[in-house]
Design goal:
Layout lengths: L6 H14 L2 E3 L2 E3 L7 H19 L15
Antiparallel strand pairs: 1-2
Length: about 70
């Protein structure tokens, strides 16, 4: 278990982990996972059934383009 103080390091490590699929530290395989709150995990579980149905019927979700998002 590690805690990274800089978010850019965490993002870089997680991105590399997604690309390579297997990561080792000194020859020992390690698993990366993000730490989510119980509420986030519950919400993800609830959406899983919806996403399965959408996938079954080939329904796609469209996201607004960058031009439509105001920050």
């Amino acid at each position: 278990l590690i805690k990274l103080t800089k978010i850019k390091y965490k993002e870089k490590i997680l991105e590399t982990g997604r690309e390579k699929q297997k990561i080792t530290y000194k020859g020992i395989p390690i698993r990366l996972s993000a730490d989510f709150s119980a509420e986030t995990l519950q919400a993800r579980q609830e959406w899983q059934n919806i996403f399965k149905v959408m996938k079954k019927y080939a329904i796609k979700i469209t996201v607004p383009t960058k031009d439509l998002i105001q920050i």
